[in-house]
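Handoff note, outgoing to incoming analyst
You'll be picking up this chain. Sequence as last confirmed:
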Amino acid sequence: MLLDDGDSVAVAVAASEGIARLEAVRFRALAQLSRHREGARSVTQEVAFALSLVDSHAGEMVAAADALTTRLPRTLNLMDQGKVSGFGAMKVAAATAWLSDKDALAADALLEDRLPGKNSEQIRKAASYVATTVDREGADKRAEHHRDGRRLAVRQGETGVASIEVEDGPVEKVTAAYSRIDRQARALKTGAETRTLDQLRADVALDLLLGGQGGVSERTEVFLYMDLFTYLGLNDDPAELAGHGHLPASLARHIATGPNTVLRRIVTDPLSGQVLDLGRDRYRPTAGLGEFVRVRDRECRRPGVRHEALSINVEVKDLHHCYVAS
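Most recent structure output, in case you need it:
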């Protein structure tokens, strides 16, 4: 029997829901195996062999199974209902892995209504944000630890190719670097250019690393959303870097207070986030700005608005970083 378009989509949705339920069964089985083996490392190899997986993916599945059956019961229940896929559940497990059991349970409760209907990237961002909010001090330490582990890696490939990667680099610099490379690659993509954008990005990046101009010299922007009180250290609400996700407050302040920072004020509605007023002037903050604003304005003086926000422009070498606080 042939299905029309609507029926085809309905069947696909029903199948996905059924797969999620079966994946929940698989996670429970893997968790039970891990408990029987008392968490032995050999479980990963056993699962990899039985399910024809690479060791790294098998290890991630075993870790997610342990978390879902102990620390994330609500997320596992959503899988039972067919509302969250196994892949999405693994994103939650990975984003909350660094939390204590108590904080993981709290994050799980906060996420229960936020996960259904979301794709895996939306789930990752939601879980990362909630994890940061339930343990803000831990998020600060984790961010600092990861940034300290930055390194440059080279992987040799086959037939004359290799890969180079900056691992765990400062997110603001990596984002700005990619933005610059992408813009210069797009500027080169004229009618006569036969290379794809991916090829152009790779060529521009290598040219810049080797001391060239990358085709076109221009400045780039990244955007950091942070409220004024977080910038001043009066609270520790997470900030958000466009294209990346949420950052702990201390890291956001570190990015926003560089020696070449330029501020631009905006005012947003505290409930909707809608921009109410966009300042046109840009200015460099003085050392006493934070103290001055703390003394003068405990809250935004505009009626009905609880906070101001800042747009922050930062130059790192020849890159132009625009950070918009909201």
